[in-house]
Amino acid sequence: MSSRNYLTVPGQDSQDADSDEQASAQDYLLDNDSLSQEREQEQEAEAQDTEDEYPLTTKQLSELHDPKSMRSYISLFQNDKLNIFKYLNTSLQTGIKTPTRNNSNIKWNYSNTKRYKLYSDNRIPERIPKTFLQLVWEAFNDKTMLLLTGAAIVSFTLGLYEALGQPPEYDPEGNKIKKVDWIEGVAIMIAVVVVVLVGAVNDYQKELQFAKLNKKKENRKVIVVRNAQEEMVSIHDLLVGDIIKLQTGDVIPADSVLVRGECEIDESSVTGESDTIKKVRLSSALRKFASINETNKKNNNNNNNNGSLHELDIGSVTPEGVHLPDCMLISGSKILSGLGTAVVTAVGVNSIHGRTMMSLKVETEETPLQERLSQLADSISVYGCVAAIILFLVLFVRFLFYVFAPNGRFHDLDPAQKGNKFMNIFITAVTIIVVAVPEGLPLAVTLALAFATTRMTKDGNLVRNLRACETMGSATAVCSDKTGTLTENRMSIVKGFIGEDQFDETMNNRENLPHSKDMFNEKCTEDLQKDLLSNIVLNSTAFENNKYVHPDIERESGISLDSINESNNQQTSSPSKWNILSWFRSGHCKKANNDKDDDDDDDLMKHAMEGRQEPYIGSKTETALLAMAKRSLNLKFGSLQDLRDDPEERFGVDEIIQVIPFESSRKWGGIVVKYKASGLIRFFIKGAAEIVSNCCHSKRNSDDCLILIDEKVSDVINKNIKSLASNALRAISLGHRDFKDCSEWPPKEVQDDENSNRANPEKLLSLKVNNKNSDDGLILDGIVGIQDPLREGVKNSVQQCQKAGVIVRMVTGDNVLTARAIARNCNILSEEAYNDPDSAMEGPKFRKLTKDERIKLLPKLRVLARSSPEDKRVLVETLKGMGEVVAVTGDGTNDAPALKLADVGFSMGISGTEVAREASDIILMTDDFGAIVDAIKWGRCVSISIKKFIQFQLIVNITAVILTFVSAVASEDETSVLTAVQLLWVNLIMDTLAALALATDKPDPNIMDRKPKGRSSPLIYPSTWKMILSQSFLQLIITFTLHFHGKEIFFKGKESITGHEQQQLNAMTFNTFVWLQFFTLFVSRKLDEGDGIKNWRKRISKANLNFFQDLLRNYYFLVIMALIGGCQVLIMFFGGAPFSIAHQTKEMWATAILCGTLSIPIGLIVRICPDELAKKFFPTKLFSKCKYIFGLEFLRERTKSSDEEALLDRDGSPNSSGSSAFF
């Protein structure tokens, strides 16, 4: 295929450009002339396609891969390798027949073909991002927002009625009182708009960031055979029956069957298995499958056992240790080595990848804090309404008495004046509701979440779901995938034995052994190092990744990666995880108020989009050996192919005589080389440690001397191999054998029976030595242990989680022994728990347990091995049913169901798949498990900040409602001591300003020392109620004393006071009330620091009592406190008639401020008092009954579903006890 390039080449003259334009115009005319002819041909092809039969449905074809099954193939295609082409109407040579097109730029329209109508194409319905207006509408439709809007409309309407429909009123001095009651409604409306817009903007920003992140390799092209020609086709346009060409490094675009070639596949992102899976072509798989079944038949007949035969399929292992052949390619897996041709059997939503993506489209549940905040808002509103109704009834009854009694105060008023008095009663009642409605609560939640998510993004957490960060504050369990989450998903050599010396690069290096580089440099001879490097470099099919940029390039030369990319005029992938992590640790992301923060965020997004690039591509064992050679044997990156092209320069090798590729059946691979100087022929071998070492005649020490392997030495070698296996390491042996007297290859004793020019691998390995003391046998050069290493910082992060009371469980596809060893290495299992059989279990066994058995087991279970996605889902579902708040981490497609089901799902931004990111709530942009600790910190900070605000708001709410209620009832004029405008200022303090001050705090240093609250914990704890009731009681005593006895205190000897003096007293009461709230804000900075401490003396600590601790860490708080104090002073001096303020004397000012400061000593006393003592005096039963009746909880109980786990929590959950009296 070819396509014309109409761009002018730089430097080409104008005549050439003109001629090109003319040619392109002629081509365009010819294309139009031939367009109708091509449409006719296309219609003919579609007609032919319509006549074709497709006997298999999408459901039947999906049985090939879910799970992978040769038996399904045999059943569907009658055990014939050619029927797959016949049934799918395709051909290995010609592929799918498409209309002939003269112009290759015209795309084939396959949407009318029967093939497409039956099987569809490889497109997955896109997740359509919500528009900004949709997000605004969703935020506005919150129940609290609607309630606030209703209250605002009523308040605004009544305010306008007062201002426009009522006669003017005058103060005692004769000044006209301005009608500004309508401002209350406007203020509430503004608060609603702010909350809605802030929430929508944050959600919209996260939508845009996620959409940008998911463009990573979203559309790419693959080679497809159609009409006997190879074409580059978008992966979205793949159809069932397409013949695709695959090569090393490709990500398989659709579920397919390998029909030609062989390759090794990494399915870790799909299945969670870190081992490389070998794929063979269909014909070989069918032949080997039949042979294995025949052997099993004979064995079963001999043993009179007919049960095991039918269980063998892909993934099974025969009693002889033979793996069943696998030719099934799963969409989303990656080819590590090899070439192949495959036929597509499932595309789009019918493929493994597509079905997983579609399963993620479910509605999200409310978070734990959301549920409790919703209940609290409802309860506060109900109490406000109840108080307003009672106040209205009391004032209305008195109003009727005043109207109808012969000597009543309102008896002689005209109807308009009577109507005005009634409206005053109604306005006072509505004022109670407006004061009670918590309009600042959603604003506090939104501000806290927005502030936390912004900071979390700078720490490497992209929060997709804004409320996920507060949920992390309640997290009690983390279920982590092993591969790619706890580990790096790349095999690495971490331990080894070279003769009598050894190295150890594991985290548990208790013997303080040297690292590999130190050991090789200090202990090993140059000849030994050269031989090991020769074996690793030449005896390998892995190759260098040309997209990888070595970190030394940027560090040593000072040239940025971006400049390298620009100079090469190509897109280069992320430098490496090393660069990203070092970039973060250098403190760039922690610069607050820095102009470069936005650039840092862009770089962070760029690294996540580009993905992590490893230096070598190939089988994980070979890439691990090459990485060790680069790290410790002076193998320079970029020189690998040069060493293979010219092995003489570095190794003295003249030629490679024979290559023996690695095969899983024999578990080793080797090469035979000939040295130029000596003519020596040497056989290099590497493979499974026990197989290679058992064939070795002698062992090579680091000083090059040889030790004969006798029984004693053999026991030491086997002990070393077992020690590696017990620590979850894959043991690999490296060795060589010299053929000193061999002039031609191969020697007769190892010649292959079918090809005399090649050595038979089995004969070569088992060749005996004539003289036991000679050095002609196979020599063991070393044994190394390979593992998927733990991510840096994982061990410490797990410890921090456990210290914070968050249980970490590992979910993996590894066997239970390996899983237990890895869990012990990263501190998930302690030494005591390691020996507990209930601490680890395999998925199939866990799945078969009953719900009660799982609930009984889970408190001890820390490791779930051999688990499937269904096992993970069951685990998360059971934990949530037990009342746990569950976070799940993962990077692969197989993690998606559990990620979506969890309360919070974490995916990896660099190594994670698109499916995992789609299913997650938070994306770890650095792939660092340690970022989960930061997420827990900020989640707890959000939860604590909101609870601080609730504590403060309820104190103000209770005091303001009771003060307004009592003063209105006690007043002959049926008016409150606090006017509507004054209440507006109080509302502004206790809602908007308090939300800004308390919701923007940062995590305190001891936040991870506290235990999580969990799902069923109350929103308001006894310690909070203790503070709310004590501070409210203090404020009511002070305000009632000043209101009802202010005349005796400040105007002694006067039987009556003037209107101006009364206004002075009312203004002083208002001033005192505000200063009480001012100092209560300081008290509210402390919340649960003393929870759980029963001893009086232990509660006297800086952490529990210092309200001014770390005051400078939150500049918002300091600014807002200065704003509140400054505005209150201005109001008291210049408020005048609008605020009903009269001049205050020095004594009144001193009284207001000194009374306000009483909040602090009372707060100290309350915090010293243990919660248990307060519970003894707190009327829990009475409070519960009142809450049940006045809170209308009996109505909620009828609508509440009664599932089994809820009943379990009520009956026996420790989290649910004692919380009925609290929210």
TrEMBL record:
Lineage of origin: Eukaryota, Fungi, Dikarya, Ascomycota, Saccharomycotina
UniProt keyword Calcium present: yes
Residue ranges constituting the P-type ATPase A domain according to the UniProt record: 219-358
Keyword terms: ATP-binding, Calcium, Calcium transport, Ion transport, Magnesium, Membrane, Metal-binding, Nucleotide-binding, Translocase, Transmembrane, Transmembrane helix, Transport
Domain of life per record: Eukaryota
Reported function: Catalyzes the hydrolysis of ATP coupled with the transport of calcium.
Source organism of the structure: Naumovozyma dairenensis (strain ATCC 10597 / BCRC 20456 / CBS 421 / NBRC 0211 / NRRL Y-12639) (Saccharomyces dairenensis)
Annotated family: Belongs to the cation transport ATPase (P-type) (TC 3.A.3) family.
Subcellular location: Endomembrane system; Membrane
Gene3D superfamilies: Calcium-transporting ATPase, cytoplasmic domain N, Calcium-transporting ATPase, cytoplasmic transduction domain A, Calcium-transporting ATPase, transmembrane domain, HAD superfamily/HAD-like
Chief localisation class: membrane
Protein name: Calcium-transporting ATPase
Residues in Cation-transporting P-type ATPase N-terminal domain copies: 84-155
PANTHER family hit by this protein: CALCIUM-TRANSPORTING ATPASE, CATION TRANSPORTING ATPASE
